Recover the amino acids of this structure.
């Protein structure tokens, strides 16, 4: 049979993607023979049926030869030959490429039978893998939630916690007059908000007091976070002025728990710390400012004149770095502003206060990063050990099948 | 005839195809021979599997040709049937014929 001249534009079979895989899969001793045989028959088919049909035939043959090639490389791992054998004893149907694929199904059935016959081995294998995989999954889900996922706010990398420092120590709490000074003077911070978490007493539907977490925050807290209300509204300018009517924003969970998700919650009044508050809005799920602590309600936090005049470090402060500004520039500017404020202060009490910006993600993670990473590494090793144990089990089991394999070989069957 | 000597149906077909082709027996004409005589479709993979197994059992021997100008310069692997293979195929044919004896008149 002579090689056929290709039409211009016709893709030759050696350029088919499956042919490239097949060339790589076939052992060197088989490669030339098999690829040459396929090409020869392709040319004959192409003359008879056209290049398209010949191409389809070629790809079908090549796919089944991939399995054979893998079997040759791995030493008979896949029982392609058994399928041929069984096909002939079962009724004479010659092996087609479809039944080559069904050899894999046969392998699975043989494996299932072998495992059913060895329940002890199966139990040990399952438990070993379950411990390794389960441990890793559990730890990874914690690491993912705490370390890997960004904060659930738009542009989260621009959010920073603003610490005050003095004599080498740092606290995430600031004096109100400093907070106001940072907000007024900073050009690198788009906005600054504050909050004071506390525990409050909320009357439930049966008028019984229940302890709840409360975050009392500046009116711009949600605006800084770029969060929109799930229902109703958030705070407006003037809501955090002393004497303003008491209002509250509910977290999504409290809204579902107390009101069953009904919109009639908006405008309802609830009693918090003995004071009636009007519900004005619902925070979207997962976007509450939980970095201030777990809470069920957010209420406005006015700054009283006495607080502004005092040195009390009572406010947790967050800022959003302006677009296009990096954190180092913001740090430099805030340090200068803090130095000016420290210089200017006429308040009683010690000077020497500085400021430090910490990415809010790092603030939330805190000191948990290193222990979590160590834990992740540890369970990773547990999984490796589990895999090694399982491999030893399989080796021991394999060596125990020597007689079985010998009998099969004498009958002309494979190792399966 | 012991069970360990038995050849599968497809193995018999491959052996007979090689015998029919004489010196020109390599995979492509073996496949053509089986398909044209039996009317069935044969995959390359199944033929390679059987040829390798027969060679392992010593029932066929193979040799590589010189690289040819056709087939992109790739060699062909030619096969030859050993006498033992034909002996076994005859034995199985005779056993089958013995079982058929007298049945033709009685079966549809």
């Amino acid at each position: 049979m002579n090689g056929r001249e290709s039409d211009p534009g016709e893709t030759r079979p050696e350029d088919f993607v499956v042919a490239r895989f097949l060339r790589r899969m076939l052992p060197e001793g088989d490669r030339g023979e098999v690829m040459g045989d396929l090409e020869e028959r392709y040319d004959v088919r192409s003359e008879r049926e056209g290049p398209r049909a010949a191409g389809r035939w070629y790809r079908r043959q090549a796919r089944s030869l991939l399995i054979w090639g893998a079997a040759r490389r791995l030493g008979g791992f896949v029982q392609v030959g058994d399928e041929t054998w069984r096909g002939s004893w079962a009724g004479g149907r010659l092996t087609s490429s479809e039944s080559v694929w069904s050899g894999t199904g046969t392998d699975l059935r043989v494996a299932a039978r072998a495992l059913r016959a060895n329940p002890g081995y199966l139990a040990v294998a399952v438990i070993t893998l379950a411990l390794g995989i389960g441990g890793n999954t559990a730890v990874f889900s914690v690491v993912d939630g705490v370390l890997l996922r960004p904060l659930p706010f738009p542009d989260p990398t621009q959010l920073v916690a603003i610490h005050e420092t003095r004599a080498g120590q740092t606290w995430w709490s600031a004096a109100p007059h400093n907070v106001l000074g940072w907000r007024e003077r900073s050009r690198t911070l788009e906005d600054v908000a504050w909050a004071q978490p506390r525990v409050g007493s909320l009357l439930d539907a049966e008028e019984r007091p229940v302890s709840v977490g409360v975050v009392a925050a500046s009116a711009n807290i949600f605006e800084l976070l770029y969060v929109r209300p799930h229902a109703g509204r958030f705070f407006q300018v003037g809501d955090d002025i002393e004497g303003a009517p008491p209002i509250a924003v509910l977290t999504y969970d409290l809204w579902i728990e107390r009101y069953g998700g009904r919109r009639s919650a908006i405008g309802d009044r609830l009693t918090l710390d003995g004071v009636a508050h009007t519900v004005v809005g619902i925070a979207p799920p997962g976007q509450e400012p939980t970095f201030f602590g777990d809470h069920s309600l957010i209420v406005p936090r006015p700054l009283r004149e006495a607080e502004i005049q005092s040195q009390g470090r009572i406010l947790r402060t967050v800022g959003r770095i302006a677009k296009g500004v990096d954190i180092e520039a913001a740090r430099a500017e805030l340090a200068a502003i803090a130095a000016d404020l420290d210089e200017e202060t006429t308040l009683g009490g010690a000077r020497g206060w500085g400021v430090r910006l910490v990415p809010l993600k790092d603030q939330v993670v805190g000191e948990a990063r290193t222990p979590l990473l160590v834990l992740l590494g540890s369970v990773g090793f547990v999984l490796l050990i589990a895999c090694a144990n399982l491999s030893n089990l399989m080796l021991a089991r394999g060596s125990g099948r020597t007689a079985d394999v010998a009998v099969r070989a004498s009958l002309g069957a494979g190792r399966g | 005839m012991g069970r360990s000597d038995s050849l599968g149906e497809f193995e018999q077909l491959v052996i007979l195809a090689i015998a029919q082709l004489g010196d020109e027996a390599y995979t492509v004409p073996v496949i053509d021979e089986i398909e044209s005589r039996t009317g069935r479709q044969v995959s390359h993979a199944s033929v390679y599997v059987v040829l390798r197994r027969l060679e392992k059992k010593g029932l066929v021997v193979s040799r590589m040709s010189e690289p040819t100008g056709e087939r992109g310069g790739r060699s062909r692997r030619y096969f030859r049937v050993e006498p033992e293979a034909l002996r076994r195929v005859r034995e199985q044919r005779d056993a089958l014929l013995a079982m058929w004896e007298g049945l033709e008149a009685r079966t549809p």
Remarks:
- Chain B has a mean pLDDT of 89.
- Chain B touches chain A through 35 residues (CB under 8 Å).
